[in-house]
Amino acid sequence: MSIRSGKGFAAVAWSATRLYASRPVYWVGFFVLPLFMFLFLGTIMDGGLPQRVPAAMVDMDGTATSRRMTRDIGAMQMVDLQYSAATYSDARRLMQEGDVFGYFVIPPHFEEDFMAGRGPEVTFYINMAYYVPANLLYKTFKTGATYQKAGMLIRVAEATGLSADELKGKINPISVVSRPLGNPWLNYPMYLCNSFIPASLQLMIMLMTVLALGNCVKYGRSRRLLAMGDGSIVRTLAGILLPQTLVWWVMALFMQSWLFGWLGFPMHGSWLWITLSNMMFVLASQGFAVFIFGAIPNLRLAISSCSLLGILTFSVVAFSFPVESMYPAVGIFSWILPMRYQFLIYMDQALNGLDIYWSRIWFAAYIAFMLLPLTLMWRIKRAYRQPVYVP
Fold first, then answer.
1. What gap in Å lies between CA 240 and CA 215, rounded to an integer?
2. Rama region for 258: left / alpha / beta (φ>0; ψ in -120 to 50; rest)
3. Cα–Cα distances in Å, from 251 out to 32, 55, 141?
4. Contacts by 92-95, CB closer than 8 A, 24 or more apart
5. Cα 91 to Cα 54: distance, rounded to the nearest angstrom
6. Where is 82: in which H helix or E strand?
7. Residue 186: is it exposed, middle or buried by C-beta count within 10 angstroms (0-12/13-18/19+)?
8. Which of 114, 216, 290, 299 could disulfide-link 222, Cβ–Cβ 3.0 to 4.6 Å?
9. What distance in Å separates the CA atoms of residue 75 and residue 370, rounded to the nearest whole number?
10. How far apart are CA 134 and CA 74, in angstroms?
């Protein structure tokens, strides 16, 4: 008996393969959109850490001290003082129009007040709507103000006759040495691309998995496929998803080669464990999508749920904000998404080069996601036996 007319797992897989090959929506979902996201996210931040953030300086003092402060801050790597505003209102208008991300204000009589010991204040304003450049600008302005304060104190102290050694102990009693681990270059793409690109892949895996399962009900193919699978819903779903799994494995390997090969992101651990993680990540994402379809056996609602959870992945999985600092009611959602464990394995293996012992629990979480659909197979089988499409 041939596969085309027979029954069993192979017959279901062959039927699903022919369907995927004949429908453009699957070609777009399997290849076009994932590759676009890989290339887009991989190239949009190819410059590494953003530098020379546009800013403005408001010097309302106009003395030699304020001009020296302007030159020193403008010479720092992360800031580009493109504008010199005369007033606070002019600088605020520049920031509201999007020309600068922040501005530094030196008040009138700054030098005079400092020499008189009246403690003048400098102020800087940052547009936090743009998180990354705003934080870089904040760090630069704060560092520049601190250095200028120290420099002015040194000049005043030298005038009183203090030696350089005495000044060092008073101005900087504790020296801080910063040694960034895992990503000493402070390269944002090494961190964000390895987060956002797999998260995008997870989103597409979940959407295409639910689309394939839901379309079987929508177009009345579920009974025939269930019969081809000898009445076993596990065999039927495995046959439907196997062609997708093979495609997603290829895309996962391409993603891995793209990130660690072509883009040259650091790999301090084992290629074997990273590859295994990506393969299991695909299966875990599929398992999570099947579970959602089992809980909501409705194509429209299941796709909407996958879209919502997939988009929330970018914010609740702690790519840029630690789970420990989230509200507990929000942070708990990071642990119910497969991407969280892919991210942790990447941190352990690729960035930190830890032994696999420290990542074993995250691989166990993958297995839990793979087995999760078994709890709702009875609901999917009932939906396939009695297909009712609700638009």
1. 11
2. alpha
3. 11, 41, 43
4. 92/125, 94/56, 95/56, 95/125, 95/127
5. 12
6. strand 79-85
7. exposed
8. 216
9. 54
10. 16
β-strand 79-85 against 53-59: which pairing, if any? parallel
Q: Which two tokens stand for residue 8?
A: 């069993």
Q: Who contacts 364 (Cβ-Cβ below 8 Å, separation ≥6)? A: none
Whether the CB-CB separation of 349 and 274 falls below 8 Å is answered with yes
Residue 352 structure tokens: 């930190």
Nearest Cα to 20, choosing from 247, 251, 198? Answer: 247
**What is the residue type of 268?**
H
Residue with tokens 């797999």: 198
Question: DSSP state, 4?
Answer: T
Q: How many CA atoms lie within 13 A of 173 on its CB side?
A: 1
Separation of CA 167 from chain center: 45
Token duo for residue 17: 């393969």
Mean pLDDT by 10 residues, the chain (391 residues): 63 93 94 91 69 88 87 86 88 90 90 80 87 83 80 69 64 70 72 87 96 92 91 94 96 93 87 96 97 94 92 80 80 89 92 91 96 95 87 72
- What letter represents residue 313's amino acid? T
CB 62 within 8 A of CB 107: no
Asked if residues 144 and 69 have their Cβ atoms less than 8 Å apart, the reply is yes
| Relative orientation angle of helices 377-385 and 188-218, to the nearest 10 degrees | 40
Record the tokens describing residue 177, joined without a space: 């040495």
Return the exposure string of 81-120: e unless at least 16 CB atoms fall within 10 Å of the residue's CB, then b: bebebeeeeebbebbeeeebbbbbbbbeebbeebeeeeeb
Sheet holding 53-59, edge to edge: 79-85, 53-59, 102-106, 123-126
